[in-house]
């Protein structure tokens, strides 16, 4: 066995499909994560299109309300746990070891396991849609008592969440262990690329809050099947307590979904501005401050449950405080571009789209942070517009930017730049057509999570639905471009972008199966 | 991992999620203590009758105490306050009653869950005796008065002139699923 492993080490990947099942190679596992995330992206996207198709016109046309509720719930669960998080973990698997000059991840076998749990978790989760009574339909936040009153999908959903949690916790521990132990000589903490830094901090958030979610859903499980009353008022419990526990996980979770994207954009913008990142140190401290603040703001998701004024003020001010480190970051990205020799290749376009549109989502977040105003906005489409602005042209554009940035590195072939630009412009046009009108219907009072609505919201909803289908179909370009790059002929050099300086660009494109066996020596900050 | 320092490091990393899982459960008692401390969630003050007697009545102030009653879905009770409101001087002990009648043809057990508004007043509203302290058992068709004895502390903030006391009755026998079915079939 050992002898076999040694030979495999020198001869690259094992032949055949079993390679992907048994692999412990960080590049293979990164690839698996990214393909999985892409597949889930189209599944979760189809669910969103069912929702938007139903909302094209007032009245009930296409699906019944119960199925509509399952679609909104599943869309969220799939997009958060199946798309954004695995995509980030995939990028971390591929890039963190080669960005810090490590030969592989610190715990390669656990790495294999953390990926291979996911397909089972999602088979179970999506399988609930075909069960009697259907899938979960109480919203992804699973608030009791409603979530306890659904069909028998609940235990499947809870076990799926446990498995996803175990997967992310193991992935996060692996990333921390890799960064702490396997950095190349001279790669001090304050010389690490920003993507590595943001992931380092994200990984700590993950191991701190995923177990809290696991606890919350376990309490739901025992409340439903084992006669506990954590959230049942009749037995002395309190449903509002679930919201506190859930959002104690949930708020750090939203930073788990965005911090690595901050890191990606901080790699891409300096490359295409041909200038070092402005304010590296402040970027690191800003990321750490955001992570710290994320633990003390959770109740801003539940201003309307009935809180004392002091509590509302505390959560309002701490929430607004997050705008400071986030503003530092946006300022640094803009300053990096200032007087840079900028070019606008696809990764840069997506990064710029990120900076502009994430900031729109950030501003609507500030509006929501104000308690008196939140009472009007709570559970309206304004909230939907807000978090989709930070997640779609935010987190997702960040991921896509990173994918285009490193795609020639992974495949060894250039991607089609014209198609890439089409992908960006179509996505940007339609994503705004999709989400911007939601601000207006939300301010006018349209509640979220409803299959039917008052007729005065009809026009904006029709526009949003057109945007949704345009955005959805534009995304087909992404796998097309990736496959064309894999099959393509235009070879990419080691340093794909002339302005790129990280360690990953010192390796050939594609990099050898096992890289940095003798570790490189780092003498200065290389971003 | 050959390096023992690293192994320790990684074990420590695994310890964090284990502790945080425990912390999730720890939030349950923390939540209760916090609610007791702030008077949120109707966690009113409790006081023994002997302590209540020692309070000095403040007849210069009169606080309007309102009573409301509600039922959780599917609770087979007719539940109303005997009087919708009363006036009370801080520091003096009063008795109020609710009336409940079991509408079911069989015995049932209920639990009333209290809430006080404004929340600021909750800490100054002390009950020396309350039907919500214990589960209430009703024979089939039984009707009875449910008493509560309370005293408002004289140092109640001066801006409060009305306190609303709300009780929700829950059917303890019905497991959550059952009441859900009842809810669905009722529509």
Q: Gap between N and C termini of chain B, in Å? A: 61 Å
Helix percent of chain B reads 25-40%
Helix-strand topology string of chain B: HEHEEEEEHEEEEH
Query: If helices are DSSP runs of H or I spanning 4 or more residues, what is the number of helices of chain B?
Result: 4
**How is the CATH topology of chain A named?**
Cytochrome C Oxidase, Chain A
Low-pLDDT segments, ≥5 res of chain B: 176-187
Give, in spatial order, the strands making up the sheet with the most strands of chain B.
1-7-9-5-3
Given the C-alpha coordinates, what overall shape of chain B results? Answer: flat
* Protein structure class of chain B: alpha+beta
Structural class by secondary-structure content of chain A: mainly alpha
Round the Cα radius of gyration of chain B to an integer and report it: 23 Å
Helix amount of chain A: 55-70%
Could you please say which CATH topology of the largest domain in chain B applies here? Ctag/Cox11 (Pfam 04442)
Strand content of chain B: 35-45%
């Amino acid at each position: 066995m050992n002898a076999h492993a040694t030979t495999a080490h020198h001869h690259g990947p094992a032949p055949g499909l079993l390679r992907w099942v048994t692999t412990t190679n960080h590049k293979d596992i990164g690839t698996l994560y990214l393909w999985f995330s892409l597949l889930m992206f189209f599944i979760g996207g189809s669910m969103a299109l069912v929702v938007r198709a139903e909302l094209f016109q007032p009245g009930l046309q296409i699906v019944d309300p119960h199925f509509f509720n399952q679609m909104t719930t599943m869309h969220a669960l799939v997009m958060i746990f199946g798309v954004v998080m695995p995509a980030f973990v995939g990028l971390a698997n591929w890039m963190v070891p080669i960005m810090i000059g490590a030969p592989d991840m610190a715990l390669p076998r656990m790495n294999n396991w953390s990926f291979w749990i996911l397909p089972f978790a999602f088979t179970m989760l999506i399988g609930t849609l075909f069960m009697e009574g259907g899938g979960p339909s109480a919203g992804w936040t699973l608030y009791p008592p409603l979530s306890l009153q659904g069909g028998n999908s609940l235990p499947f959903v809870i076990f799926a969440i446990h498995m996803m949690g175990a997967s992310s916790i193991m992935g996060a521990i692996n990333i921390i262990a890799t960064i702490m132990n396997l950095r190349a000589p001279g790669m001090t903490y304050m010389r690490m690329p920003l993507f590595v830094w943001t992931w380092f901090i994200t990984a700590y958030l993950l191991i701190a809050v995923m177990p809290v979610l696991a606890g919350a859903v376990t309490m739901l499980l025992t409340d439903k099947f084992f006669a506990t009353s954590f959230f049942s008022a009749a037995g002395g419990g309190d449903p509002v307590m679930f919201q506190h526990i859930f959002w104690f996980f949930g708020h750090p979770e939203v930073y788990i979904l965005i911090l690595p994207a901050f890191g990606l954009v901080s790699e891409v913008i300096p490359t295409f501005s041909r200038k070092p990142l402005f304010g590296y140190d402040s970027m690191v401290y800003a990321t750490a401050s955001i992570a710290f603040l994320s633990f003390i703001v959770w109740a801003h998701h539940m201003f309307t449950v009935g809180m004392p004024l002091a509590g509302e003020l505390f959560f309002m001010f701490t929430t607004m405080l997050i705008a400071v480190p986030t503003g530092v970051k946006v300022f640094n990205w803009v300053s990096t571009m200032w007087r840079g020799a900028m070019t606008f290749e696809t990764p840069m376009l997506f990064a710029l789209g990120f900076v502009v549109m994430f900031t729109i989502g950030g501003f609507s977040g500030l509006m929501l942070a104000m308690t008196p105003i939140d009472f009007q906005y709570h559970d309206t489409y304004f909230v939907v517009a807000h978090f989709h602005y930070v997640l779609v042209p935010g987190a997702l554009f960040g991921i896509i930017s990173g994918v285009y940035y490193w795609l020639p590195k992974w495949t060894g072939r250039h991607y089609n730049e014209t198609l890439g630009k089409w992908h960006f412009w179509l996505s940007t046009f339609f994503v705004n057509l999709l989400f911007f009108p939601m601000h207006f219907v939300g301010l006018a009072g349209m509640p979220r999570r409803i299959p039917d609505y008052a007729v005065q919201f009809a026009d904006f909803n029709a526009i949003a639905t057109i945007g949704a289908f345009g955005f959805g179909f534009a995304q087909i370009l992404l796998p097309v471009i990736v496959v064309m790059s894999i099959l393509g002929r235009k070879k990419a050099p080691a340093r794909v972008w002339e302005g790129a300086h990280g360690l990953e660009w010192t390796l050939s494109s594609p990099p050898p199966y096992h890289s940095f066996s003798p570790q490189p020596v780092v003498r200065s900050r290389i971003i | 991992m050959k390096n023992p320092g690293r192994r320790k490091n990684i074990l420590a990393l695994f310890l964090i999620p284990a502790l945080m899982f425990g912390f999730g459960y720890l939030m349950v008692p923390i939540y209760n203590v916090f609610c007791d401390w702030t008077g949120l969630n109707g966690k009113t003050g409790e006081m023994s009758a002997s302590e209540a007697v020692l309070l000095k009545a403040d007849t210069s102030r009169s606080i309007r105490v309102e009573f409301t009653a509600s039922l959780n879905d599917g609770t087979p009770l007719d539940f109303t306050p005997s009087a919708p409101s009363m006036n009370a001087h801080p520091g003096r002990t009063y008795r109020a009653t609710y009336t409940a009648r079991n509408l079911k043809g069989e015995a049932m057990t209920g639990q009333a869950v209290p809430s006080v508004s404004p929340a600021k007043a909750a800490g100054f509203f002390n009950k020396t005796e309350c039907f919500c302290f214990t589960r209430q058992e009703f024979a089939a068709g039984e009707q009875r008065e449910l008493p509560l004895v309370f005293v408002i502390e004289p140092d109640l903030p001066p801006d409060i002139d009305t306190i609303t006391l709300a009780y929700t009755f829950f059917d303890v026998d019905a497991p959550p699923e059952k009441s859900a079915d009842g809810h669905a079939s009722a529509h």
